[in-house]
Amino acid sequence: MSAILSVDHVGVRFGGLVAIADLHFDVREGEIVSLIGPNGAGKTTAFNVMTGFLKPSQGEVRFRGTSLKGLAPHAITRLGLARTFQRTSVFPDDTVFDNVMIGLHQVGGRLGRAPVLDALLGRAGAGERQLRARAAALLDWVGLSGRMHEKAGALAYGEQRLVGVALALATEPAMLLLDEPVSGMNASETRVFVRLIRQVRERGITILLVEHDMPMVMEVSDRIVVLNYGRLIAEGPPDRIRNDPAVIEAYLGQGSSARQAAKSAHGSAREPVHA
């Protein structure tokens, strides 16, 4: 499989602080790859570089062979690289349906909300009807068809996460970046989300995720990339990572909560762990 995303010796500095140092790895088409590490390891900083929210101090990221250096987030999204955020990335005062419609209008290059309002007022043309049908199909696919006319902010936390995924999928990405997607979810919500991740991959979408839930990471990942203090310390399949001495040491050095995360990575913990 060829690389769809290449992180090429990326470094990020904030004054004298090195947030990321010489980070390099590839994500191949069709993979589910997890980016893990203790708190402060540089995971979200790396995501922000990949999606245009932060400029690297050195190196570059390439998506499908195209350098993303200097591109704005919306331009990167239009190339086919979409993301969700640590916090629920929904418009809380809009309906669930409107949230997905906004994403679909971004695909068409219409960034304003007027077309959505026109659709709700019954002034939709054939193109608008097609977008509305697609929005309804996306919400049905993530299991929220029965909630589409409710305000997104009124949904349970796990359901808001699903809206965020539907919103990202509305941009028709080739690759989806998920930033701590199951953080704060209960066990039942996490199981639903794991099924959704697998369904997304079955649609041909490559996935890169940042996550602290070690059982979930070990279950769903094809490969795992591990950061510590902004540096790559390990990369490989779950079986190799759970037994890697550098990974175990990185988590054990973070205190009791990370100690349990290291145990979890070895399969001895049953509940999700947030290190």
Automatic annotation (TrEMBL):
Keywords: ATP-binding, Nucleotide-binding, Transport. It comes from the Bacteria. Gene3D superfamilies: P-loop containing nucleotide triphosphate hydrolases. Residues 5-254 form the ABC transporter domain. Pfam families: ABC_tran, BCA_ABC_TP_C. One of its GO terms (molecular function) is ATP binding. PANTHER family: ABC TRANSPORTER ATP-BINDING PROTEIN (PTHR45772:SF4), CONSERVED COMPONENT OF ABC TRANSPORTER FOR NATURAL AMINO ACIDS-RELATED (PTHR45772). Belongs to the ABC transporter superfamily. This is Branched-chain amino acid transport system ATP-binding protein.
